[in-house]
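FORM 12-B: Structure-to-Sequence Request
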């Protein structure tokens, strides 16, 4: 109901944000399922009213896990997100995804720019179908706005030729 009201007021998209804690042990399968299932329901409800969906999947870092661990969690969450959007009869073409940039935990050695960008792009390539119209890597956990902008710009440059557009900085 509310989605229809917002559409009537001029809204054309709705944003979903979910946080998934990433550590050596987390997230649990139940947590991933619960968060991505809710995203699927949200996407279907919004799209029935004509709203596009911007889905931010924030991987919150804790501990000293590696960038590879973050990539594993990112791939798990993104693939389950697409699965649940499809299972709820959502329209993947009506969703823009905002995956978190793959970086190591705060107690680990800092992740180099090229490693973060390459790992994030690999995770997105492995999980998002060409039907997804756009991607904007989310930069939570980076030390400054300048670092965040550098990471997104590098991602944009490396993603040239991919089937989905990368939103500008």
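FORM 12-B RESPONSE
SEQUENCE OUT:
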């Amino acid at each position: 109901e509310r989605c229809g009201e917002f559409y009537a007021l001029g809204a054309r998209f709705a944003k979903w944000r979910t946080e998934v804690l990433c550590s050596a042990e987390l997230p649990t399968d139940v947590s991933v399922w619960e968060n991505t299932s809710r995203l699927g329901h949200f996407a279907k409800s919004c799209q029935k009213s004509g709203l596009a969906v911007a889905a931010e999947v924030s991987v919150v870092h804790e501990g000293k896990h590696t960038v590879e661990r973050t990539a594993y969690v990112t791939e798990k969450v993104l693939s389950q997100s697409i699965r649940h959007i499809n299972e709820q009869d959502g329209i993947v073409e009506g969703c823009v995804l905002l995956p978190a940039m793959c970086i190591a935990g705060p107690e680990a050695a800092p992740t180099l720019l090229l490693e973060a960008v390459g790992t994030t792009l690999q995770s997105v390539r492995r999980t998002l179908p060409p039907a997804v119209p756009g991607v904007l890597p989310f930069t939570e956990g980076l030390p400054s706005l300048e670092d965040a902008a550098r990471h997104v710009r590098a991602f944009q440059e490396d993603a040239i030729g991919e089937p989905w557009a990368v939103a500008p900085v």
